[in-house]
Write a structure and sequence with these properties.
This protein is mostly helical. The protein has 16 helices and no strands. Helices cover 74% and strands 0% of the residues. 50% of the residues are buried.
Length: 359
């Protein structure tokens, strides 16, 4: 056991070194989201190549804490008023995730050669851990569902920042965090508030506690106009590095060999969902005065933390993106069991209808 633990620690240290070098190189090359995408791609490539790199234990949660805390500083009273005016758009974008998820599920079932329950939970763009837990209760193949969500998040996190960056779709919104400078005297209050949010959400067994807890508590203090401190840039970058490393370690040498057809269809379904999101927000963009880039980030099927930090780094509407993704995750997690029952019942009726005339 000690020998195994020492080897494990060595591969964890190696992963952090690789991630740091990749993040620095990506930043030097002026790539979008360098401290997340650099570690994500480098670790994923080396893992697929056979190196057993490991994420830092608790690193994903620490990264989520940094991101959730940084995002909470954007929810000023003025921003909340702005979000209130755009409530219909937020509801439409969150609700569209259900429709696009069902389309993806149907594609996965038909072309990916999996059972309806597996296709359903693999297609819905909810939180990966929540979808896996729900799928296990309904008889879905959790390994394929987890793989589909890992691939989905990686593709979306990779495609959207590059597309917006090269399309000059960044830096033209006015949302700013309440605390713009680092004040170390106020840092203990920020730390206490964010960790209190984590403890509250963990006690209530609410998913994504390390993102939503700090986001809620720090956001509440920000909405009350209580003076806080900004997080140091190196701490936010470190959070992105830890999150990118954790995402990269989800891949393994057998990842693409386990079910190549299913993963290929899953990648295609993700691309189709992105295209549908772009068309959808392009249409509603005619009705509301919000730039296309923020709408696309808000409606995209990426992870909540990843899309929100993308909005922050690209100077887009952080509150809009964050609020929409929080609502999307809550909506999908709450409605998934009921939707799954209806979906399986519909698929069962279709199967009976299709085979009913056969002798």
């Amino acid at each position: 056991m000690p020998k195994y633990s020492l080897r494990q620690a060595a591969w964890t240290a190696a992963a952090l070194v690789v991630a740091a070098l990749a993040g620095w190189a990506a930043a030097a090359a002026h790539l979008p989201l360098p401290w997340m995408l650099g570690p994500l791609f480098s670790i994923a490539i080396l893992r697929v190549a056979g190196l057993p790199l490991r994420a830092l234990p608790g690193g994903r949660q620490a990264g989520q804490w940094a991101i959730g805390t940084a995002l909470g500083l954007y929810f000023t009273p003025a921003v909340l008023g702005e979000l209130g005016r755009h409530t219909p758009a937020i509801l439409l974008m969150a609700g569209s995730a259900v429709v696009f998820g069902l389309i993806a599920a149907r594609l996965l079932e038909r072309w990916g050669q999996v059972a309806p329950a597996t296709a359903f939970f693999a297609g819905l763009p909810g939180g990966a851990s929540e979808m896996v837990v729900l799928a296990e209760r309904h008889g879905g193949q959790i390994d394929r569902i987890a793989a589909a969500h890992a691939l989905r998040v990686m593709l979306v996190v990779s495609i959207i920042p590059f597309a917006l960056h090269h399309g000059a779709r960044e830096g033209h919104e006015t949302f700013r965090a309440l605390a713009g400078a680092v004040d170390w005297l106020r840092f203990p209050l920020l730390l206490a508030a964010s960790l209190a949010g984590v403890a509250l959400f963990a006690t209530l067994r609410i998913a994504n506690a390390w993102v939503l807890g700090p986001l809620l508590c720090v956001g509440g203090l920000t909405a009350a106009n209580l003076p806080l401190t900004s997080l140091p840039g190196w701490l936010v970058n470190g959070g992105q590095l830890l999150l990118g490393t954790a995402l990269g370690t989800r891949f393994s040498p057998s990842f693409f060999r386990a079910a190549p057809r299913f993963l290929s269809v899953s990648a295609g379904a993700t691309a189709l969902t992105l295209a549908l999101c772009a068309l959808f927000v392009g249409a509603i963009g005619w009705l509301i005065p919000i730039p296309f880039a923020s709408l696309l980030l808000a409606s995209s099927p990426g992870g909540m933390a990843e899309m929100s930090i993308t909005a922050r780094e690209m100077h887009l509407s952080v509150p809009l993106v964050t609020a929409t993704h929080v609502l999307r995750v809550v909506l999908l997690t709450a409605c998934a069991p009921l939707l799954c029952r209806y979906y399986l019942a519909w698929r069962g009726k279709r199967s009976i209808t299709t085979t009913g005339d056969k002798p």
